[in-house]
Amino acid sequence: MWDVDGKRYLDGSSGAMVSNIGHSNPRVIDAMRRQMEKSTFGYRLHFETEPSERLAAKVASLSPEGMEKVFFVSGGSEAVESAIKLARQYAVTVGQGSRWKVISRFPSYHGSTLGALALTGYAPLSDPFAPMMQAMPKIPAPRAYLDGIAMDDPATGQHYAAMLEACILEEGPETVLAFIQEPIGGASTGALVPPAGYMQAVREICDRYGILLIHDEVMSGGGRTGKFMGGEHFGVAPDIIAISKGFGAGYAPLGAMIASDRLINPVLDAGGFLHGHTYAGNPLACAAGLAVLEEIETDDLMGNAARVGAVLKSRLQNLMQRYSFIGDVRGEGLLLAFELVSDRQTMQPLPKALNAYSELVELAYAEGLIIYSRRTRGGVDGDHFLVCPPMITSVDQVDEIIDMLTSALDKFSAKAGL
Ligand code: PLP
């Protein structure tokens, strides 16, 4: 990317983990141009359009078996809202109207609309709106590394999954509708990969209590982890999936809710899903989405994300030898993050006054590298940084990213006296 002064940047975070196939892809632009010449709008209650039907078929073929129904929206929050509403309408339809609570995790981010914010475990964003939304029960995300528990201990996954069961029992299973989680964490946990056994145990607990499992793949879906859905890494299929971000890859506002026939069919039989947005399934957005998926398949960009992601992750891990204040490097494929700490043993965060989360981003920016940061631990303390370049990134560009990041980290450590 070049700014108005001609300064060059490497987009090391794909914007907000969106531009998965890079910027200005000529084939996607051409597909959009061709669609624009045909039609740019068809009201979904009058017509389905060819691009939306083709994209739905493509998404269904890339989704876990049995998840064949695709409902288009224009972004991540809308996809999450659609998931909550479908779950609720399904429960009402099958005579389980007492179920309405959606358990989520802390920290988490599920969107900015009131319903999605009620699921979001990130107090600075949700607290100001508290009286206007129904806060939902939350359990801790499995960040064992912060709790002094080994991530690779076989008991760790069970330990965190047991918190879901405890929460369900406390709330009353007959009131719990669904559990929502990011299979591989996004900005809230900084690319958290769950401990072994966690995802399977969560699925089993949801099944035992008749609770729907929703995967928020808004950031982890679309291929950047090396698989189309982050959940695929664990061999666990949810009941509903929300995707967006890399799905439209920045070419068009696009998202989708994908659901199993088991859920959708009773709702359709009872008269249809009581939800929708005027612009949903917009043919131009769907043509862009289709061209993005074709690009990913033709150039094996998921394979590239897995291969180049492994190189980038090991280079980031090497930086831990040089900087004692990098406490953790984590993630999968090209959904990677590192966390800064003052003590690697205790994982205590850096002093808040250092403002690491904005300082390091600024220093990287000056070098010509864009990275994405968040105050972690629920927005209270701690700093992590997402390094998530597009899926077209080469190993040479990884070298360039690491060189710029090293310069930025050198300057940060000198300035912070670390
Ligand atoms: N869910 C997750 C995991 C996200 O990362 C985001 C956005 O960052 C959202 C939902 C909300 O998406 P949007 O900003 O497109 O509404």
UniProtKB/TrEMBL annotation:
Pfam families hit by this protein: Aminotran_3
Protein name as catalogued: Aminotransferase class III-fold pyridoxal phosphate-dependent enzyme
Domain of life: Bacteria
GO molecular function terms listed in the Swiss-Prot or TrEMBL record: transaminase activity
Record keywords: Aminotransferase, Pyridoxal phosphate, Transferase
UniProt record similarity statement: Belongs to the class-III pyridoxal-phosphate-dependent aminotransferase family.
Essential cofactor(s): pyridoxal 5'-phosphate
